[in-house]
Amino acid sequence: MRSALYSLLIPLLAAPALAGAPFSFDAAPGRLPKDVVPLDYDIALVPDIAEHSVRGTEAITLEVRSATTHLIFNSLHQTLDHVRFDGRPVADTVSDDDAQLTKLTLTRPAAPGVHRLTFSYHGKIESQPFGLYTQTFKRPDGTTDSLLSTKFEATDARRMFPCWDEPAFRATFRVTVTMASSATISNMPIAKRTVNGALSTTRFQRTPKMPTYLVELTAGDFKLISAHVGKTAVGIWAVRGQENDGTTALANAQQILADYNDYFDYPFPLPKLDSIATPGGFSGAMENWGAITYNDQLLLVTPSSTIRDRQVAYAVQAHEMAHQWNGDLVTMGWWDDLWLNESFASWRAAEETDLRHPDWQWWEIEDASKEGAMAADARQASHAIQQHVTNELEARSAFDPQITYAKGEAVLRMLEAYVGPDTFRAGIRRYMKAHAFSNATTADLWLALDAASGRTVSEVAEDWTGQAGYPLVTATTECDSAGNRSVTLRQNRFLLEGDDTGHSHWRVPMRIRAGTDAGTQTLLLAEDGQRVDAGRCDQPLSLTPDAIGFYRVAYDDATLDTDRLAFSHLPSGDRIALLDDQWALVQADRQKLDRYLGLAAAMGTDLNDRAWSQIIDALGQIETYERGESGHDAFTAYARSILMPVAGVLGWNARPNDPPPLLHLRRQVIRQLGEWGDADTVAEARRRFDAYLANPASLDPDDQAVVLSVVATNADQQGFDELRGLIRSAHNETELDRYLRALMRVRDPVLARQALDVALSPEIPPQADSIRLQLIFAVSDQNPALAWATFRDHVDQIMAAHPQYRPLLLAQYIPEYLWNALPADDLEAWLKTRVPPEMASNLARGMQAARFKLRKKTELTAAADAFLASRTRVASR
Ligand SMILES: [Zn+2]
User: Fold this and answer.
1) What is the distance in A from the centroid of ligand 1 to the CA of 339?
2) What distance in angstroms lies between residue 670's CA and the mean position of ligand 1's atoms?
3) The pLDDT of residue 8 is above 70
4) Which of 178, 340, 626, 649 has the lowest tally of Cβ within 10 angstroms?
């Protein structure tokens, strides 16, 4: 699953390390008894969208493993009728919506063997994106339509049909639906479709054995474009009239499917693989087997799309398609091991995207999400990749974008580099074959990797998945009389605040590069004080070559000076790792700001996109802290001076054959200079904006966001009204989204108030409701107090599109973003009355982050002012 919250911070309770054992159905956690197991479901549904209700019948073939008079399974908001066990009425049927369970009592014990349970039921169609839900949307021509779709992970299949809704209970499914709709889509191809007046009845083929959370059903006015990869029919569905916007996605899907068939050495086992672009609904994507659902903004590529839109479409498709193996073919036995789904899909997607688009420098883009994970994991209250989920209703909170997705991805990349890509792939192939159409645990994966490599990879790997945090490796160098270098390595947990009371320890799979173009040597850091020879003392040294590795390195001053002097000659990944680590050390009070700024200045006119975005983020944080302080103007002038040389090299206009990272770098540098008040940049943006108003073709989609946001930041009322006019004339949701986000950049408080009115207005179509919260946060960058007041007064409207995540968003996300909107104590008091008691630790974590930023504001403002004062003294000497 790819959630819109992917980039946000949603950690969980700290959890004990989990003892690993291979998968066993009987030992798999869960609330449902294991003495009755469903083998096959035959489900017939008659949805009534207008009434928000559904009638259904189910015939379930069961295996009774030991004699019992009770059947217990999941249900929610359903009433069951005509319940028959082997054709005979049951003694009692009790459904409990609080427990989300139905308990049947039989008239006499069922003997071990195969039995048949049948019933009819009626339930509800949700208007929020979970279970079986309906979504209203506005078409580009202004007309309104609605669709029916499903989103079940983690525990919402039970909202559509009563079932054994835990991942270890795999079964086959036959789905039939009767309704008025031009297209109905499910996991499998259609077996039979009959039309009866306005209604049609569609019966789908039987699925392979799979868990309930992967069942899918979508219906509406959809149209298909399709192709074949071997025997597999590959299709893209979109709302009629938009199907050709799926052309890029169709080509992507064909390429990715062929590559994965080879990588996993296990051909995609279903006859077809559809991707369905739904307008609105949930804002991410979901890997239902054979029928992946996407928010259409993630999948469709139109003339309004940017390069980044195309990149995200590819990466999200590669993620969801990786799940067709990691998650669908082999499913985690229980939600504890969700990382087997999400870390793997994230890592595989990044590898595939990098493989097929080497000019995108995709791993460098992914470095930003690795840094997000490392920031979250540097807090005392972080949690392990494997985390305990006692009850499936807590499973949703296991989808922590930073730890379960991004840390897991980076750890897998580190392990792959450690054992070698061929050995790693051999282990994964072994794992797939051993557990196909079944479930697995982390221990099963380690067993497969150990067998493939002939080493105990498992011992190293468990240090990284079983405990929170990561190490800071301290490197102390010594030179002998001939200039040869040896390095002594020590580790302790890297924390932004406080000491590591747990005395954590990792076996760290490291690589070492001495020199600028040298290869790497590998080293497993297992003992404190371990020594290693590393080239000559006059050569630069990298202990995280290519920025692979989920650890940080603190070099001694002499080594750092050598690296800084050679900075422009280092491989880009080594340079990125140095910038990342030195900035993190500054934040943790383990390095002086001057040291980091020395590296930033050493970039000169280097053109690495990720290195510059790291620097822009860091300088931007200090600029935010300096707002309202006496040193603000001096600091922004300094920040501009760091970017000016590279801006001079890049200019405004792209050159033929500029690769995507260079195009992105040019735009981010221009945007930042405009936001930091560079007069020439602001004037040029305004000139290009005027030309755009006169002739929209004068500015390609990739340049629009930059020009519009620079204009908005510096806008007066007239500029605001012109931007506002664009929103009214947007041709599609992609454009609307771009214009709205730009408008929220206004600095003038009077205009910010007007922007906030737009963020709440019905001009935003129903399928884009979830953007409102992001717009409030965009305003909070320049006008935190105004954004807060609007959020506080309209919290229910703004959060309506996030029903499932509301408690987590309030507890953690609001303090993280609105830390400077009001005094921390006041914010905490307001949130405490609105956050459920079980989220207390999340709120504590959110407030810890807010107070950390407040403390950093004081410290980094002082450090930046002192740095600039010392430069002035040197200059005037
Ligand atoms: Zn996923």
Assistant:
1) 9
2) 34
3) no
4) 649
pLDDT tens column, 65-114: 999 999 999 999 999 999 999 999 999 999 999 999 999 999 999 999 99
- At residue 544's C-alpha, the angle toward residues 543 and 545, to 5°, is 100
The one-letter code for the residue type at 248 is T
- Residue 401 is given by DSSP the state I
* Alpha-helical regions (H) of 291-331: 296-299, 307-323
d(CA 869, CA 43): 74
pLDDT attached to residue 13: 28
Q: Round to whole Å and give the CA distance between 314 and 295.
A: 14
The catalytic residue positions are 320
Model-level pTM? 0.95
H/E stretch holding 175: strand 172-179
Show the tokens assigned to 501.
Answer: 């009371």
Task: Tell me if residue 215 falls in helix, strand or coil.
Answer: coil
Element (H, E) at 492: strand 484-493
Distance 613 CA to ligand 1 centre (A): 26
Largest CA distance in the chain: 99
Q: Token digits for 861?
A: 């403002």
Other Cβ atoms closer than 10 A to 500: 15
pLDDT digits (tens, 9 = 90+) for 161-208: 999 999 999 999 999 999 998 899 999 999 999 999 999 999 999 999
120 CA from centroid of ligand 1 (Å): 33
Residue 640 CA, chain-centre distance (Å), reads: 32
pLDDT at 804 (0 to 100): 76
Q: How confident is the model at residue 5 (pLDDT cuts 50, 70, 90)?
A: very low
Contacts with 55 (C-beta within 8 Å, 6 or more apart), sequence order:
45, 46, 48, 120, 121, 122
Tell me: pLDDT of 3 over 90. no
Q: 291 CA to middle of ligand 1, Å?
A: 14
Dist CA 501 CA 490 (whole Å) = 17
Per-residue pLDDT of 129-167, as tens digits, reads 899 999 999 987 889 999 999 999 989 999 999 999 999
Q: Are 242 and 253 in contact (CB under 8 A)?
A: no
3-state secondary structure of 801: coil
Confidence of residue 876 (pLDDT cuts 50, 70, 90): low
- Whole-angstrom distance between the N-terminal and C-terminal Cα of the chain? 60
Q: How far is the CA of 19 from the centre of ligand 1 (A)?
A: 24
Contact 494, 554 (CB under 8 A): no
Report residue 558 as tokens.
């002499």
Query: CA 695 to CA 422: how far, in whole Å?
Result: 53
Ligand 1 centroid to 316 CA: how many Å?
9
Distance, in Å, from the CA atom of 678 to the CA atom of 662, rounded to the nearest integer, reads: 21
542 - beta bridge partners?
Answer: 513
Residues across the chain: 877
User: Do residues 302 and 734 touch, judged by C-beta distance below 8 A?
Assistant: yes
Residue 453 burial class via C-beta count within 10 angstroms: exposed 0-12, middle 13-18, buried 19 and up: middle
Buried b (16+ CB within 10 A) or exposed e, 689-703: beebeeeeeebebbb
> Helix, strand, coil % (nearest 5) of the chain?
45, 25, 30
Contact 708, 739 (CB under 8 A): yes
Could you write out the DSSP letters of every residue in 667-723? HHHHHHHHHTT-HHHHHHHHHHHHHHHH-GGGS-HHHHHHHHHHHHHT--HHHHHHH
